[in-house]
Amino acid sequence: MIQVNMPAAFRSVFGKGASRQLRMKDKTPAVLYSGGADAVALQCDAIEMFKKLYAIHGRNAVVTLEIDGDEKPQRHVLVQEIQKNPVTDSLVHIDFLEIDLEKPAVFTVPLQYTGTPKGVDLGGELQKVATAIKLKGCPLDIPDYVEVDIKGLGRGESLTFDDIALPEKVEMLSKRAKPFVLVV
Questions:
Q1: What percent of the chain has a predicted confidence (pLDDT) above 70?
Q2: Closest-CA residue to 39 (of 26, 29, 49, 47)
Q3: Is the pLDDT of residue 59 over 80?
Q4: Among 80, 98, 116, which residue terminates a domain?
Q5: Is the domain of 87 the same as that of 110?
Q6: CATH number of the domain that 173 lies in?
Q7: pLDDT tens, 70-109?
Q8: Could you tell me if 6 and 89 lie in one domain?
Q9: 17: which DSSP letter?
Q10: Which pLDDT tens digit goes with each residue over 155-175?
Q11: Any residues with CB less than 8 A from the CB of 87 and at least 6 apart, and which?
Q12: Same structural domain for residues 33 and 57?
């Protein structure tokens, strides 16, 4: 899984007007949620945050927040929600969810297909039933994507989730007998 470091600072101003003032100073308001504890109001540099979020867009990533003046030097989080202005595409607000790196969680990981099946070369049609797979494991053990080699598929053949090789500390939650790619 991808890891990214992001600096942040505590936020002492709240409300719509105060948040608007922060955005005018190129700061983005954010909130850190932590499993039952009180939410922590944060602010981040908008330009740096936009660049880092753009780099991890659409991927599973563990973000290490380095909060100025915090008792914990680093907090490991997932990006829960990103709110953007629909016209200017600038960041409006970000929600983070704190996670424990040693505790298993469920992630949706994209499937990446490689090769052209021999059945397609012989006139068949490739049908991709699934584009992602559900996996359970510690966040740092989860792969960024699962690569599937489909070169050997002939006409009328398919692959099931059981055919996918996974890292040893990762558990598959998708139905193993279900076909996810086939050549018809």
A1: 100
A2: 29
A3: no
A4: 98
A5: no
A6: 2.170.120.20
A7: 787 788 888 888 888 889 888 888 888 888 888 898 988 8
A8: yes
A9: H
A10: 888 888 888 888 888 888 888
A11: none
A12: yes
Q: Which residues form the domain of 169? A: 105-183
Taking the C-alpha atoms of residue 155 and residue 34, their distance in angstroms, rounded to an integer, is 50
* Lookup: tokens for 36: 């039952």
Domain boundary among 63, 98, 133: 98
Residue 153 CA to residue 155 CA, distance in Å, equals 7
Chain centroid to Cα 45, Å, comes to 21
3 state DSSP class of 20: helix
Q: Which two three-digit tokens encode residue 114?
A: 């490689």
d(C-alpha 158, C-alpha 40), whole Å: 48
Q: How many helices (H) and strands (E) does the chain have?
A: 3, 13
**pLDDT confidence of 136, banded at 50, 70, 90?**
very high
Tokens of 119: 């059945």
Query: Do 92 and 114 sit in the same domain of this protein?
Result: no
What one-character DSSP code corresponds to residue 33? E
pTM surpassing 0.85?
no
